[in-house]
TrEMBL record:
Recorded coiled-coil stretches: 45-72, 117-144
Biological processes per GO annotation: Golgi ribbon formation; protein localization to Golgi apparatus; regulation of canonical NF-kappaB signal transduction
UniProt keyword Metal-binding present: yes
Protein name, UniProt field: Optineurin
Record key words, sorted: Coiled coil, Cytoplasm, Cytoplasmic vesicle, Endosome, Golgi apparatus, Metal-binding, Zinc, Zinc-finger
GO cellular component terms, A-Z: autophagosome; Golgi apparatus; nucleus; perinuclear region of cytoplasm; recycling endosome
Record-annotated membrane-spanning stretches: none
Cell compartments where the protein resides: Cytoplasm, Perinuclear region; Golgi apparatus; Golgi apparatus, trans-Golgi network; Cytoplasmic vesicle, Autophagosome
Alphabetical list of InterPro entries matching this protein: Optineurin/NFkB_EssMod
Amino acid sequence: SALFRELQETHAKLKEADVIQKKLHEKCQILEQEHPASVGDLDEKQQLLYTVKKLELQVESMQSEIKLEQTKTNDEKAKFNSLQDAHGKVVKELTEALLTVEDLKGKEVQRPDQATLDELVHKLDLAEKALAAKQLQIDKMKQTLM
C-alpha cells in the first residue's frame, strides 16, 4: 500500500541520516585527535557539530513521522478488520435468510400465508442491501489501504 511504501521510504531516509551522522561524528573525533588546537579545525569541528545536531533533529522528526504513519496504518487495519467482521455477519444472515426462503419454497404442503412470505422477502431484501453496503465499505477500505 502507498502508506506502507511511504513508511518504508521515511525509514530508509532515517537510516541514511543515522549513517551520515555517525560518519560526521567519527570525522569530528579524528580531526580533534589530529589537530586539537588548530583554529581552522576548530571552525570545521563547530560546523560538523552543527551539522550533526541538525541531522539529529531531522532523525527525531522522521521518527515522529514514522510513529504517526504506524498509528494511521494500525487504525486503518482495525477499521478494515471491523468491516470484514460485519461483512461476514451480513453474509451469514443473508445465507440463513436464503435457506429459510428455500425451505419455505420446498414445503408446498405447509404453504405459509402471504404476510409471512412478504416479511421474509422484506428481510431478504434488507439483508441483500446491507451486504451490498458492507461490500462497498470494504472495497473503499481496500482502496485506502492500497
